Amino acid sequence: MEFILGAIGIGIGILTLIFFNGRILGISGIIRGFLQSPFQENGWRFFLIIGLVISPILYSLSSPLPTFEIITSPAILVIAGFLVGVGASLSNGCTSGHSVCGVSRLSPRSIVATLIMMATAFMTFNLIKFLF
Amino acid sequence: MNHLLKLTALLSGIVFGFGLLVSGFYNPNNVLAFFDIFGDWKAGLMITFVLSILISAAGFRFIKNRSLSFTSQPINLPDTKQLDRKLILGAALFGIGWGLAGICPGPGLVLIGSLKAEVFYFFAGFIPGIFIPSFLNRK
Fold it and tell me: What is the pTM of this model?
């Protein structure tokens, strides 16, 4: 059930932004645009980022967030963040922009990007698990 | 109008964030368990993934023939069709990074609000990373 409710939230979030602001919800592009020019075009990027950051705080008012640890080491987190950043920037999209918005619009670029992202992520995880 | 667009962007972020929270997508351990196909595979996020695509598809279909949003904003839809080397290389690098830590940018922002201090290491790599392609292009 939580997987279905989660999808409804993700879908409504995406459709709110396209229906009202006329924008694709692609987080990496939004972060890049925000850092280049934080308050241009009504500052919609700023408000969207704020919304995402405060969402767990609002959510925890009604039900407690699960406790968990981030097990990845700091050095690997920096490397992972770097690769995700370079990759999203080069391919002009990430999980939200390509894999949800782009695939839902049947964009050939997004479909190809999603298949490659998924395949390399599955391979990387399993290769590391196999080696260590 | 200006304020309405700020509010809708804020609400979009909050609701999208709720989706990542409820589904568990924001928790890197769940994403890594989703990658663990040969081990104790947790495939549930596939449901979230496919269903969120279907919901978005219905909405994008609905606005397909409109050029303006409900608030008379131009609708910005990318229409590049070209499959180039940058797209393929970028997607591959993204996938490697995503497979290493189970964090992508949206869940990363939710983790900031969840007060997971470790996520700052992720952004310490991510933020320089997103500017590198345009920096190299400029030269």
Answer: 0.94
Residue B49 in tokens? 């993934």
The residue ranges of every structural domain in chain B are 2-138
Neighboring chain B residues of A23 at a CB cutoff of 8 Å: 73, 76
Distance CA B54, CA A10 (A): 11
pLDDT tens for residues A57-79?
999 998 888 888 899 999 999 99
The angle subtended at Cα B55 by Cα B5 and Cα B77, nearest 5°, is 50
Partner A, chain B 3-62, Cβ-Cβ below 8 Å: 4-29, 32, 35-39, 44-45, 47-57, 59-60
Inter-chain CB pairs, A–B, below 8 Å: 444
Alpha-helix residue ranges (DSSP H) falling in B63-118: 85-101, 105-113
End-to-end CA distance of chain A: 34
B135 to chain A, closest Cα gap in Å: 11
A17: distance to nearest CA of chain B, Å?
Answer: 6
Q: Which of A111-115, B34-38, B65-69 has the lowest mean pLDDT?
A: B65-69
Pairwise CA distance, residues B4 & A124, whole Å = 43
Reported ipTM: the value is: 0.95
